């Protein structure tokens, strides 16, 4: 019996995968000073028959259920749902940027109060602080809780940028327009 002709291992960017005489650099691999190295974090596959080493990039998601994340509202499929681009995760040592992921906010989770429309909680372009509910993208998120909600918004009338206080009723300081948001207490 012959063993498998391909072996695999987790490798980091810049890690040596073999010598140039033994392996050709395949996908996501390169030659540096006689060594074949990985360009990415991923799973390296050494093909001993064809003498090629390929690396399949590993996409590590840093988002976990229960985490607090920051995102921007970019789309409303209907008046009960907001789509959010999640771009940062809060850790104990601060807020870290991540590769953007899609979040989805249903009106039921947009506030502790019962809202008839998502527009009473968030607006287009709003910066929000939310809790992650699910473990796979699109990540379901919640604004329930006093510390969660809109961090920065824009007046729907004059587009002035507003950092709201804790009240859910916001009065635009520029044009006086009154509108509602689920606001995060700071
Ligand atoms: Zn205004």
From TrEMBL:
Compartments, record wording: Cytoplasm
Pfam families per the UniProt record, alphabetical: ECR1_N
Domain Exosome complex component N-terminal: 10-43
Entry keywords, A to Z: Cytoplasm, Exosome, Metal-binding, Zinc
GO molecular function, one term: zinc ion binding
Major localisation: cytoplasm
Protein task: Non-catalytic component of the exosome, which is a complex involved in RNA degradation. Increases the RNA binding and the efficiency of RNA degradation. Helpful for the interaction of the exosome with A-poor RNAs.
Family indicated by similarity: Belongs to the CSL4 family.
Protein name stated in the entry: Exosome complex component Csl4
UniProt source species: Caldivirga maquilingensis (strain ATCC 700844 / DSM 13496 / JCM 10307 / IC-167)
């Amino acid at each position: 019996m012959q063993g498998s002709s391909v072996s695999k291992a987790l490798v980091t960017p810049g890690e040596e995968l073999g010598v140039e005489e033994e392996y050709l650099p395949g996908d996501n691999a390169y030659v540096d000073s006689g060594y074949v190295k990985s360009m990415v974090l991923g799973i390296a596959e050494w093909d001993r028959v064809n003498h090629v080493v390929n690396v399949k990039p590993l996409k590590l998601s840093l988002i976990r259920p229960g985490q607090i994340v920051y995102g921007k509202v970019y789309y409303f499929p209907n008046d009960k749902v907001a789509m959010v681009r999640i771009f940062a995760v809060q850790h104990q040592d601060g807020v870290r940027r991540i590769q953007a992921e899609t979040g989805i906010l249903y009106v039921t989770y947009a506030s502790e109060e019962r809202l008839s429309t998502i527009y009473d909680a968030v607006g287009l372009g709003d910066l929000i602080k939310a809790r992650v509910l699910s473990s796979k993208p699109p990540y379901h998120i919640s604004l329930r809780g006093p510390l969660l909600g809109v961090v920065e918004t824009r007046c729907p009338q004059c587009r002035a940028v507003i950092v709201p206080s804790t009240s859910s009723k916001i009065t635009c300081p520029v044009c006086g327009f009154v509108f509602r948001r689920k606001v995060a207490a700071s």
